[in-house]
């Protein structure tokens, strides 16, 4: 299986993802939110690009939905939840549809339309995402959401972790960037220690969200792998 990496939502090219398996990563924090919400029993997550689209969708049946997401890492006015995975408890999300709009993560997911399978992953479900990708037995592109169209250390090292898990499952042919991500991970397996260098880590820390950072760095504590298909994310 060939494995490649795209470094930000702004770098996705249709021909690179077409008919491939894609794993989308925004470990800080959108794909950690989605994985947690799905594992905690929500019906679906609907990723949308804009606040207006999200508001319009929930207007008629407000109680069916949880509106979640962020702009500049902060909760959006009129929304129920911000983009903290710890808010998406089973008590809150069970049986609900979550409408999510975030700066980079939801854009990365929607940007991969055209891929054969679009898996959602983070550190917290990395091993299961690798197993699922191996089962799909198709060339793999790991799409990093990145931060404001720039390379992001956090998503890159998470890619390295998933590649490491994938190597236990099947033979892989890594592109140069995938080899680099794996090398970085093997030399920095303490994710929490390493992502301190990421600019987005500093932003989340400034907001006092230390618990989010610790949670998002945990390895493979969840075994579900959400998949985006026809506008919805489900198991
Ligand atoms: O950019 C995104 O999609 C978010 O995950 C960023 S934040 O961590 O919520 O600020
Ligand atoms: Mg991010």
Outline the fold blueprint.
Elements: E1 2-6, H1 14-17, E2 21-25, H2 30-39, E3 44-47, H3 51-58, E4 65-69, H4 90-93, E5 97-101, H5 105-111, E6 117-121, H6 126-136, E7 140-144, H7 153-167, E8 173-174, H8 176-186, H9 191-194, H10 199-206, H11 210-216, E9 227-229, E10 232-234
Helix pairs in contact: 6-7, 7-8
This protein binds (2R)-3-sulfolactic acid and magnesium ion.
How is this structure best described in words?
This protein has 235 residues and is α/β, with parallel strands linked by helices. It has a single domain (2-227), classed as putative 2-phosphosulfolactate phosphatase (Alpha-Beta Complex), CATH 3.90.1560. The protein contains eleven helices and ten strands. A seven-stranded mixed sheet has the order 8-1-7-2-6-9-10, sandwiched between helices. Helix 4 links the parallel strand 4 (65-69) and strand 5 (97-101). Helix 6 crosses helix 7. It is globular. The model has no long low-confidence stretch (mean pLDDT 97). (2R)-3-sulfolactic acid (3SL) binds at residues 26, 28-30, 70, 73, 83, 102-105, 145, 204.
